[in-house]
């Protein structure tokens, strides 16, 4: 308990004087990101929808990246992951990221495969 | 000579035990490991949602068409605003929680009480909002027709505006009389799913009104729903139509694929369940703080552990928000 808090965020670019002001700073940052997400979700700019990267709309990539940024700051500053030892941090973060990424990639490829099977009359590869 | 060895002779050495290489207490570490397992559960749910979405990617409803309501603003198209409000409520209650943890570090009992109280209020507002969101989704707005193949078709006027089925259905045409025990077979129950208008009424109203077109569940390559011409629309309704769908439940969904409704109820329901237990645990801890339990124990780590759970609930919402409402 009562151990020291690391007060710098954005890789040391922003430094806060106290833990409380850091909390408000992170809250402001999370709010800005959320407002950007909601604004993009309402406007849905045409060129972001029509451009695709790795089978996903550019807009959706932006949403996913912003979500991961938010998740990072919630975990690092609200859940104090920044102040934990690197051992605890890696045990939790890398385990989760590996398992989740693995599952998501496999399952989405499978879903896309079934979509193609339905669309092209039940045969996708004719060996 | 004693029977048991009480000293190993390794006290103070690295292998003598009692080390804490992760510098975290038992309770905190177990809360972290629980969070990891719970995160994997939620990822499993969200991944299966992604699976179904990719499977029916050309016919999946997007949230902008589904969640367009805001309380007290009837008839105003307000996509996203309400769920953005819910997101802010949850992030803000996360902020008050982390402020409570900070006050606990400084042993300021009154501040912990205040911030925990605000956190509980935030959680309750979120739960109420979610109940409203569910109720609106279940009630539906325009209504639709389900075809024999399980597809959803919706109705538009010539300008491309949605038209509610109860506005054009021929209500006086062949009214439906509910099945009761007195006038029918005593063991036969009336059907559970009973929309306000019947399919025959909608069909008659549709055929009488030349201004109406049909919009399909499927989308073209630009992501817009396919709209049929008047001739095709009539053929679609007459040949394929089967059932009136109003709102969403676990079997039918007027907004599109029933799986969308199933996943929505399941995942936001499971998340709401987490919020509800989080509020409950917060309340227990809140009373403990008031009673001075942690003041006597001389540390507020329990607030921190509960805080971890609460932030996790917020973290999950960030992902649910993205994958249900944004993407």
UniProtKB/TrEMBL annotation, chain A:
UniProt organism field: Aequorivita iocasae
Keywords: Cell membrane, Membrane, Transmembrane, Transmembrane helix
The organism's place on the tree of life at top rank: Bacteria
Pfam families, per the entry: COX4_pro
InterPro entries: Cyt_c_oxidase_su4_prok
Transmembrane segments: 21-43, 58-79, 91-109
The protein's name in its UniProt record: Cytochrome C oxidase subunit IV family protein
Cell location: Cell membrane
Signal peptide residue numbers: none
Membrane topology: Multi-pass membrane protein
From TrEMBL, chain B:
Keyword match Ion transport: no
InterPro entries named among the record's database cross-references: Cyt_c/ubiquinol_Oxase_su3, Cyt_c_oxidase-like_su3, Cyt_c_oxidase_su3-like_sf, Cyt_c_oxidase_su3_a-hlx
Record membrane topology: Multi-pass membrane protein
Matching PROSITE patterns: COX3
Coiled coil (UniProt feature): none
Top-rank taxon: Bacteria
Compartment(s): Cell membrane
Ranges that cross the membrane: 30-51, 80-100, 112-132, 263-294, 306-326
Keywords: Cell membrane, Membrane, Transmembrane, Transmembrane helix
Ranges where the Heme-copper oxidase subunit III family profile domain occurs: 1-327
Family to which the UniProt record says this protein belongs: Belongs to the cytochrome c oxidase subunit 3 family.
Name recorded for this polypeptide: Cytochrome c oxidase subunit 3
Species assigned in the record: Aequorivita iocasae
């Amino acid at each position: 308990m009562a151990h020291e808090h690391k007060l710098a965020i954005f890789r040391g670019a922003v430094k806060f004087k106290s833990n409380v002001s850091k909390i408000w700073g992170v809250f402001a940052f999370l709010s800005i990101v959320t407002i950007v997400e909601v604004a993009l979700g309402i406007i849905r700019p045409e060129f972001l929808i029509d451009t695709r990267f790795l089978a996903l709309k550019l807009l959706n990539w932006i949403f996913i990246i912003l979500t991961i940024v938010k998740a990072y700051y919630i975990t690092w500053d609200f859940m104090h992951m920044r102040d934990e030892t690197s051992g605890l941090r890696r045990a939790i973060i890398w385990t989760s990221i590996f398992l989740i990424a693995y599952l998501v990639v496999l399952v989405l490829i499978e879903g896309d495969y079934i979509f193609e099977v339905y669309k092209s009359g039940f045969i996708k590869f004719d060996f | 000579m004693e029977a048991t060895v009480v000293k190993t002779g390794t006290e103070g050495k690295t292998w003598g035990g009692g080390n804490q290489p992760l510098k975290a207490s038992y309770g905190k570490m177990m809360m972290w490991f629980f969070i990891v397992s719970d995160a994997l559960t939620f990822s499993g749910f969200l991944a299966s949602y992604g699976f179904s979405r990719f499977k029916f990617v050309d016919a999946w409803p997007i949230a902008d068409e589904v969640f367009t309501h805001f309380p007290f603003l009837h008839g105003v198209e307000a996509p996203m605003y309400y769920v953005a409000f819910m997101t802010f409520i949850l992030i803000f209650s996360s902020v008050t929680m982390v402020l409570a943890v900070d006050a606990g570090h400084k042993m300021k009992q009154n501040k912990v009480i205040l911030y925990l109280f605000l956190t509980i209020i935030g959680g309750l507002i979120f739960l109420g909002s979610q109940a409203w969101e569910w109720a609106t989704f279940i009630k539906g707005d325009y209504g639709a027709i389900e075809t024999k193949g399980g597809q959803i078709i919706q109705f538009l006027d010539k300008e491309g505006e949605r038209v509610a089925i109860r506005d054009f259905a021929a209500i006086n045409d062949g009214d439906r009389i509910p099945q009761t025990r007195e006038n029918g077979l005593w063991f036969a129950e009336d059907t559970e799913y009973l929309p306000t208008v019947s399919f025959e009424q909608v069909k008659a109203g549709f055929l009488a009104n030349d201004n109406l077109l049909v919009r399909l569940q499927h989308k073209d390559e630009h992501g817009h729903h396919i709209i049929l011409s008047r001739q095709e629309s009539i053929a679609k309704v007459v040949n394929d139509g089967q059932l009136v769908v109003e709102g969403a439940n676990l079997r039918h969904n007027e907004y599109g694929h029933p799986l969308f409704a199933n996943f929505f109820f399941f995942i936001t329901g499971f998340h709401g369940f987490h919020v509800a237990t989080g509020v409950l645990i917060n309340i227990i801890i809140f009373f403990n703080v008031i009673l001075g339990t942690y003041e006597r124990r001389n540390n507020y780590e329990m607030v921190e552990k509960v805080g971890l759970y609460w932030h996790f609930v917020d973290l999950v919402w960030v992902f649910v928000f993205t994958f249900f409402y944004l993407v």
